[in-house]
Amino acid sequence: MKIDNLRYNIKKILKKIKLLKNNDPNWNDIISKHKKTYNELKEKASKGQKILICTSTGGHLLSSHFEALLALTLTRYGANVEIMLCDKVLTACQMSTTQFISEKNLISKGQSKICNSCLDSGRGAFEDLGLKINYYSDFINKDTSKKISSKIKNLTIKEMQEYKEDNISIGEHAYAGALRYYAVGELNNERHGETILRKYLYSAILTKNIFENYLAQNKIDKIILNHAIYVPQGIICNISKENNIKIIVYTNAYRKNSFIFSYDDTYHKTMIEEDVADWENLVLDQKKEKIIIDYLLSRKHGTNDMFYYFKNPSFDIKKKLVDNGVDIKKPILGLLTNVIWDAQIIYKNNIYNNMIDWLIDTIRYLSNRDDIEVVVRAHPGEIYGDRLSKQTVKETILNKLEQLPDNLKIIDSSSDISTYSFAEYCNTLVIYATKMGMEFSPFGNKVICAGESYIKNKKITYDPKSIHEYYELLNNFTNLKKPSEENINRAKKYAYHYFFRRTIQIDSLDSKVKSWPPFKISLNSFENIIEDKDNGLKQLSEKILNNKKFIFDI
């Protein structure tokens, strides 16, 4: 730790004299005018609910910076906040991708290439707040490493994927983490996939031991996690469940400077199971309807969003479709994919194991239909996201099908064809996990949901409960009823609920488009907080502290 401290302090000096770029929140300037007030708030909060913000990967700047602002806010409203950071003890985690660390280096040297900067970024985000920071290394038993290595050294990929301890699905998150590392949907084509997975499994088990030791020494009331999947966050979520600790999980939402929160599990699962009573009786007046329709239309250009996955999209696409071989005179079944490696965990009640299985099965099942066109639109995020997908939808189809059906056409992720314009040519859309179902349903599109999209179970889309039921929908998709006015209105209600009630926009963040993180903490953020001017942060804190649903009425 001495070397880490020396490096960190040297970096601080270099940032101060502007010889090194400084992305850290400037807490000294933000709090300086109200230092006495802040110290009084901290003292008062020491008797409040104990909340652990388990950032872990401080190098994920979107999370660490927002969580630092959230820590400041919760302290102001009376919570006793502590932080948890990993200090270079994991051999593989959410921060590792082939974009930053090659297989060779990850196998031979571990994550050392990124660990220093990750730790320094976490300290830079939190230290000047003066809150207690817990470090992973403080909760590792002496002989833990050898025991874990011995336990998993001979496990197969399947055994690692299914690995459990104390009813905790450790292998599920380790496997999802390995897929994320490679940016693929399957490990079987990766030469060193088994070795990399073993590193993720080792880190997952180590995380379990660390967090169990932390809980044995500390009593906490609530824990805040980003994502709650992968390694380490998914493991921490599962351990918290087993220990009956209230879990608050969040991620960034679509609109600029906005976030979505859920209780007790990752939002990937809770949004599917959300009680429809939370929104179906919403009165969608003209003002609300205009707000949601205007926003959905803006999504074509991403003008109000934190991220935008299209590059110069073309909206006049008739000629482009024809040039791509699409017979626009036939009924078109549009298959809208998601990024192939994202959030590959186990979802209950799914009729397919994953998106690849769904996609290939659908294409094969419809392969002899010469009366229709089956058009796959690969997600632009494969190439315009935060990393290039190593395994793409197009290459997956080409590799798994010996011969492409005559009725199959593929719009690759690199195409400038707007998905929004493409949907207008489709008789019916089929989605798996993409959220585009909630964007198209309010405009009267017929949508079949075959996977874990949030719009599932909302009585808006066709949601098959079995493969047989799905096939029946495919057989008759041209004759499926178009959504009624009542159904379209229901879709608008849910879209409004999701984009404007379930997500909360934070005024104390200044948007920075095409930057990382995509916002900067405002210099007047602490004044906003203590004077109750940031309604988003105020409502968020009240709901966290009082266990209220994360529904925000604007």
What does this structure look like?
- This protein has 554 residues and is of the alpha/beta class.
- It folds into 2 domains: 2-271 and 506-546, no CATH class; 297-501, Rossmann fold, CATH 3.40.50.2000.
- Helix content is 42%, strand content 12%.
- It has 23 helices and 16 strands.
- It has helices spanning 2-16, 27-31, 35-45, 61-76, 103-109, 112-126, 144-152, 157-161, 170-182, 193-217, 233-242, 267-270, 286-298, 318-323, 355-365, 381-384, 393-400, 419-424, 437-440, 467-475, 485-501, 525-530, 535-546; strands at residues 50-56, 80-85, 132-135, 164-165, 168-169, 222-226, 246-252, 258-263, 332-336, 373-377, 408-411, 428-431, 447-449, 503-505, 509-511, 519-521.
- Strand 1 (50-56), helix 4 (61-76) and strand 2 form a beta-alpha-beta unit.
- Helix 7 (144-152) runs antiparallel to helix 10.
- The two termini are 47 Å apart.
